[in-house]
Amino acid sequence: MKKNLVVVGYGGQGGWHADHALKSDVVTLHGIYDIKQERIDLAKSKGINTYDSFEAVLADDQIDIVVCATPNDVHKDIVIRALESGKNVVCEKPVALSVEDFDDMCAAAKKAGKLFTVHQNRRWDVDFLAIKSIIESGEIGDTINIESRVHGSRGIPSDWRCHKPYGGGMILDWGVHLIDQMLQLIPNEKIVRIYNENTNITTDEVDDGFHLMMTFESGKRATVEVGTYNFIYMPRFYMQCKNGSAYIEDWQKNCQIARLKAWNEKEVVPVQTAAGITKTMAPRDEITLDSYEIDRPKSDVHNFYRNLVKAIDGVEEQLIKLEEVRRVLLVMEGCFKSAETHQALEVNI
Questions:
Q1: pLDDT grade, residue 269 (50/70/90)?
Q2: Whole domain around residue 113: which residue ranges?
Q3: Are 246 and 131 in contact (CB under 8 A)?
Q4: How many domains does the chain divide into?
């Protein structure tokens, strides 16, 4: 039986949730609520039920799930009040502006006996899934280094995302996604070192980009970078492994793989550079290297809600686990501290 879902905050991401709920096989869009009348009017023009107040949402016993898709600074209050009213809650990312606030939200969920989760939807991105599949297959050996980047050239958005009191900035916007993905790619390992630098090219109020480096207990390294002032983009993913490398140019491209077949070549032909020759940087040939690409994995974003409903019914474990969400928040807090102090942090996350 489908669950009734209400979206609180009918902006860009709230509209995404509403549109997908209308197409879902497991939830029904029961309505929306927004503090802006023009958003209410837009929903009504589409035939969507609306609520006059958040209190009306809380009082509706027919609602099974509340989706919080508001600006970041008001997540905590909405989530806790919805949980206390007996609703299961999905919160948009970043779920909270601090680990302390998140712990309060989790405590409220436990007390209410209701399901609480976070919409880490980028776990369904096909570029991420391609890299994850290569790691899990072991086809190019153990991971040495993973680099994950998202670049744009239009600066930080000019809405609430550029203002610090509302939880603006790229660490809280894109960083939360890319850090979450990275911790899925290098699971079951503690982070022992964090170093982060923020950029403030288009605004001084919040970070409009950042460059994060993480070192894990095994020595594996990870780079996460977001830029909003890049007019030539670096690769979406680059990964070094013991027996090869993987590369994804951008969202729409297949993953390119170079797999090492043999280390030594009988004879390396030097290449001519501008000021001399080099054997060290000479390209490999097909005798020692296989080069190929893999197809883009299939992905269905509706699986988030399918899992959610099964988790509410107690027949499946939550895919987005609260302890994983908390770990991402700890890393983000480390990002801010490292950037403020201009120092690397020794951590145990």
A1: low
A2: 3-119
A3: yes
A4: 2
